[in-house]
Amino acid sequence: MKLKVNRTTIEVFEGAEIRHALLTYLTRRRMSLKYLEKLEIRDIWGHEVALDAPASAFTQIRLNFKE
């Protein structure tokens, strides 16, 4: 299943959670996994998304650092 994180297409397994997509994204970008707790996760419409939310095909996620 494919989804987008900050305009980068990520492929994850069926039944994955948003957490799995972010782990894949951070690993691909060679960023520390410690950033996972410091990120604000929003969908394309600006709604906050939980890490344990189910990922679905064609989901688009935007990441920002919390202040």
Summarize the structure.
This protein has 67 residues and is an alpha+beta fold. The protein is built from one helix and four strands, in the order E-E-H-E-E.
Describe this protein with a few key phrases.
single chain, 67 residues, alpha+beta, 4-stranded mixed β-sheet, globular
Q: What series of H and E elements makes up the topology?
A: EEHEE
Arrangement of strands in the largest sheet: 2-1-4-3
Q: Low-confidence stretches at least 5 residues in length (pLDDT < 50)?
A: none
Computed structural class: alpha+beta
Distance between the termini: 32 Å
Largest sheet: 4 strands, mixed
Gross morphology is globular
Return the average pLDDT rounded to an integer. 90
The quaternary state of the protein chains shown equals single chain
Rg: 11 Å
Number of strands: 4
Strand content: 25-35%
Q: Approximately how much helix is present in the residues?
A: 10-25%
**Continuous helix count:** 1
How are the SSEs placed, and which strands pair?
Elements: E1 2-5, E2 8-11, H1 18-28, E3 39-43, E4 60-65
Parallel strand pairs: 1-4
Antiparallel strand pairs: 1-2, 3-4
